[in-house]
Amino acid sequence: MLLLNNHLLPTAALPLPNRGLAFGDGFFETLVCVDGQLRYAADHHARMQQAAAALYFQLPAPLATVEALQTTLQRLAAANELPAARLRLQLWRSGGGRYKPPGEEAEWLATAEPYAADQTAIGRADFARENHSLPSPLSFCKGPQAWLYVRAARERQQRGLDEIILCTAAGHVAEAGAAALFWIQAGELFTPALTTGCVAGVRRAHLLRVARQRGVTCYEGQYEPTAVLGAAAVFTANVAGLRLIRQIGAQWLPATPPALWSALQRWEQQPD
Predict the structure, then answer these.
(1) Are strands 2-4 and 26-34 parallel, antiparallel or unpaired?
(2) Do 220 and 198 touch, CB atoms closer than 8 A?
(3) What's the longest Cα–Cα distance across the chain?
């Protein structure tokens, strides 16, 4: 079952014209609902509001508040009888036309599939050679620059890597191919700033928040790859989980991560 503009249907055909298809005039969210609870709902909704504002359209009523978003997507997970669901919510501007936006109304589609957490370690990662992050007014959200992550995934596949790390054109570390990038050094937590063009991941925001609440010094900035290679632990974070990276390029990272790694895993499972 899926939801198309709040109609629960077994399948649906999207009518044309479709501005999401024609111009990429929209964005998407990937969310997780477990045992009827939508994880990081407030963070997802805040990013949705920011993305809609950046694209100059309105969130539809069933998605317009945190409470409405939770109710709507809980309904979808329940209809699919999924105790743990990975949900994709796609929004696009209504109407046709050319580049000039015809209005501020939006249409939306939500789909569900089984969710499984993935905390397994990443074997070998490396810095991208053919792709780099692209800071823009929309780089914080998912969708408008999805082609970049498709290219990065292809490069990862072609090079036989388990993960790929994107840098800016100036050479500063930005993010992993489909996740935020973090590292630990001297008991402190580091991650690239949003100015690098990385996605403003909801798990990234949650992890920084719970770490700061517990007195951990956290830095968001522009860092050279050498800062990552010299870290005590490097890991990715997205809706699937936190994953340690074992090797970057030819360099192996420390086999035993510091105590902060275990603490972060424990803290971020708790509501903030």
Answers:
(1) unpaired
(2) no
(3) 57
Q: What is the pLDDT of residues 31-41, one digit of tens each?
A: 999 999 999 99
Name the residue with tokens 């109304």: 105
112 vs 76: CA distance, rounded Å: 7
Written as six digits, the tokens of 219 are 């830095």
* Cα distance between residue 87 and residue 72, in whole Å: 11
Query: Per residue in 133-154, is it b (16+ CB within 10 Å) or e — as a string?
Result: bbbeebbbbbbbbeebbeebee
Contact 87, 32 (CB under 8 A): yes
Per-residue model confidence as pLDDT tens digits over 37-65: 999 999 999 999 999 999 999 999 999 99
| Burial label, 61 (beta-carbon count in 10 A; 0-12, 13-18, 19+) | exposed
**β pairing state of 241-248 and 233-238:** antiparallel
Q: What does the block give as tokens for 97?
A: 């036309």
Distance (Å) of CA 20 to CA 85, 143, 224: 24, 10, 36
